[in-house]
Amino acid sequence: MNRQFHPKKIELLAPAGTFEIFQKIIKSGANAVYFGGKSLNMRMHREDYNFTREEMKEAVAMAHSFNKKAYIAVNSLLSQKDLKEAEAYLQFLNDIQPDALIIQDFAILELINRLHLNLPLHASVMMNAHNLQTIEAFKELGITRIVASREMDLKTIQNLHLQTDMEFEYFIHGDMCIAHGGQCLYSGILFGKSSNRGLCMKPCRWSFQIKKDGFIFPTEYPMAVKDMCMYEHIPEIMESGIVSFKIEGRMRDAEYLMHLIHCYSDAIDRYMEDPIGYDRKKNMQVIYENRKRDVSTAYAFGKPGLANINSRYEGTGKLYSHGKVFSSPVEEREISKERVKEIKKILMGRSPSPKKAILSVKVNSYEQGKVALEEGVDVLYLSGEVFEPDHPFSKKEILHLIRQKKNTKIYLGLPRMMFEDDFSRYRRLFNANALDVDGLLITNLGAIREFRQLGWELIGDYCLNIYNHEAANFYQKQGLSAVTLSVEIPLKDAIDTIQKSSIPMEVIVHGSPVVMYMEHDLYENTLVLDPIGYEDNHGADHSILVLADEKGYEHPVYRDHRGRNHMTLCKDLCYLPFLKELHAIGVHRFRIEGCHYDLNRFQKIIRIYQEALRDLTRCECLFASLTSVQDRFTLGSFQFDEGGDSS
């Protein structure tokens, strides 16, 4: 069943969580079906879901017998343990020849190339493709389709479609995340169950009240987004250049999915048959009556604001498919002497490294930058997304810091999300001004493609999600000289990744990395809601919005100068007690993520870490001097030897 629209074929792409569901859906109005195997995909909560290898083989053959396509999701980040399994798995997939694999981790690309396999590749929504430079980089790597970022509006897609022959796939219905694709790390850090490995415990759907400026605001589920529903906007999607209309729902039952497929299939065919007399609302009422949550068009027509937040059935925190609760609020696990001792034992046995340890620091303001230079840090990163009330680094400030830098290397950080106007501004800055910076802190593949010709050193930031050595080596081939380790990687995977990577690995050892990165602006709640009480923040400055969960734990959310929100840990990350052991396994770059600190605290932390790196035998003693009554620290993902197993 082919659907031809203008010069291209379009497809309705349906999910299947089990082979039994697939057998029904493949006979429906869907042109293609996507599913996953029993490992290495983004839906790993249920053992009775996903396909065995025999089922995958039969499903691909059955799809082709109906002249339809079968796409297989191999879209989780791979642990070091997964890499070996992935080789045999990819060779099996090459034998059964699905129409494409949906991938997130560049390790898959590395393995396919090394094994000389013939497997078409689609870039998962978790790759967060959102600019032309990234799309063109994907194309050069052999990727034939992107699943567009959830935050990309249809107008942007239409503009990009005119500039590239890349295929675009777009979610038209189903469960959405509040965070940018691949940029929610909290479940992995808190539970050892990574949202990038199909095991998200949904902390975004906890109940939270908002606190700011001494006021309490009566929010209930302020990060629980509505489900996507684009049923009434089929014409706009079809005219935008999108070729694949994707329904989310690999954990949904057959009856629910068959109903959706029928409605959307009918709508697409009716519009193609009669675009003038087309009725947008024909089945909308029945879709609405059978919804799981309330629905919205999300970012399809611009930022939706608070209208995108759901209240229907939230608070259960349940998987609709079987009613199991995902998670309840828990405290970030504090550093304990026992766990530090276990970590040191696991890390021990390596010979001391002769290579000098260096200290890098990311700063939020010109004033922080001056302090870092006065203290003589080795590397200074100027954040590309500055938290309010500070302003972005001006040309004048950058040049002034460069003049003071002495032996410090200075790198300009880039925003995680870079749209065309961002590239335009940075091009003008770099081309019109002889900035004598040492390099860039890179946040996306498109930025590598765009700026590597400048000849500056390029360092990969932690938002690149380096979870294994194959992905690290991929980025080295792209031109990076060092990469930052994922902050949600558990201890043993971190050790293996560091030791097997050919590229230097930077580790964030102190501070508060962003664990949820959102286009959604939670601060809007404080403008439209009346306070219901008064209470100061317990940790963060009162001007900072905090999400107070049901157990009273406060989660700071910083707003940057573009209005994006950055949720950080409740407690600062701290690896100070075992820096010596990390250095021995090959870590030579140690970073303080310091954007949220006041100047006095910032200076004190820098001095302690510099002293530690000068004499690594004093780390535990210095940790004791760092702690006080008000300072509480967490080991983050290093509290786990291994994370939740994607297999």
TrEMBL record:
<dbReference type="GO" id="GO:0008233">
    <property type="term" value="F:peptidase activity"/>
</dbReference>
<keyword id="KW-0378">Hydrolase</keyword>
<keyword id="KW-0645">Protease</keyword>
<dbReference type="InterPro" id="IPR001539">
    <property type="entry name" value="Peptidase_U32"/>
</dbReference>
<dbReference type="InterPro" id="IPR051454">
    <property type="entry name" value="RNA/ubiquinone_mod_enzymes"/>
</dbReference>
<dbReference type="GO" id="GO:0006508">
    <property type="term" value="P:proteolysis"/>
</dbReference>
<dbReference type="Pfam" id="PF01136">
    <property type="entry name" value="Peptidase_U32"/>
</dbReference>
<protein>
    <submittedName>
        <fullName>Putative protease YdcP</fullName>
        <ecNumber>3.4.-.-</ecNumber>
    </submittedName>
</protein>
